[in-house]
């Protein structure tokens, strides 16, 4: 039988370990966030629906982003045991310079719409962490102001080629003069994807004050106070815009951009060139022939073509085919440090975070971005230790198995590059024989060379 006694104060004393309460609400909620999804939950509570949905949403049925995240869940790690992992190195060389982590902040549009500190918060946090920060053409802070916020760090400028070529290249020139070291050319946006959340929310720039937005703002007064009492929204690339996001994108983006134009852009830029939005092996090889410094496997976070290829699934083959000739980077669907480690193991040199960064920004401004980077950095180091590796160079495909979920029912009859539709005239029995051009001849014919559209003078 258990014998009981009255506890003595001396017995209770070691158990009484009260912590000093944190009075700062922001610090308290960010400290409680242990994962990127925790930051997402906080962000959703603190951000108006239209702005949050612009970050969270993707194209059409949002299948691409769901598949991308599922692909990272559908992996199996293969750790080694009895290794000395008392120290781990999470940095290495990316595009000719050292980074402290194998990830950086992706270019995001309309960032100050999510939280008023915007790109400046991201640039400051990236500078402290020793990782690259990429400014979008559709960013809401000027090229020069981002450079001032991160004067000694890695600044990348992301370019959308517009119909107005002179204006596009003027931005490139400004970025070069400001000292940005890398041009990130995004090539998967001939037109804007069908982002249905934005349409349903009536998301516009600047946000419209309707009855719905006012009601939605009531539990989020801090966001509206910040928005209404700070500098009016402006862009890295244009002064103002009044209308929907889709209208802006379709007005600006040029659907005629091709490989010849890309070669011309590359010739204008003095630094490194990375092409973002690569989604098949044939395009990756052609870009290597063009001499780019890196390619980013990406389906634009699922925000362009729904049901697009999953970048993480493309990674192993692309890395095998072209990884010896150019750096292979990856984005779309990354929500943890384990996702990043798996990407490096399968051949990526670098990864980029978009939504994860914005969740932190919306959850707590600059401090929230710091928390995002801290969470991912801790997860990267812990995953490496548990795998039994000390450095990124030790990671290899043997550490990861991609488990099958989406398996093609049959091999495709043609690659994406070959599947060019060919128009044929209806067959008429009474018609006289005519000389025709075969489909294969049409597909393999040499394109007509032409000068870049509205090209700015070469430097």
Describe the structure in brief.
The protein has 459 residues and is an alpha/beta fold. Helices cover 41% and strands 11% of the residues.
Structure description:
By secondary structure, this protein is of the alpha/beta class. It has a single domain (25-402), classed as Aldolase class I (TIM Barrel). Helix content is 41%, strand content 11%. The chain has helices at 9-12, 25-32, 36-46, 49-56, 63-73, 111-114, 118-129, 143-149, 165-178, 196-201, 211-217, 221-229, 245-252, 259-268, 281-290, 311-322, 337-345, 355-387, 439-444, and strands at residues 75-77, 92-94, 97-99, 103-105, 133-135, 155-159, 182-186, 204-205, 243-244, 272-278, 294-297, 327-330, 350-353, 400-402. It has an eight-stranded parallel beta sheet with strand order 4-13-12-11-10-7-6-5. A two-stranded antiparallel sheet has the order 1-14. Helix 7 runs parallel beside helix 8 and helix 17 crosses helix 18. Residues 422-451 and 454-459 have low confidence and may be disordered. Residues 28-405 form the FMN hydroxy acid dehydrogenase domain. FMN binds at residues 107-109, 136, 158, 186, 276, 298, 354-355. The active site is at 300 (proton acceptor). Its cofactor is FMN.
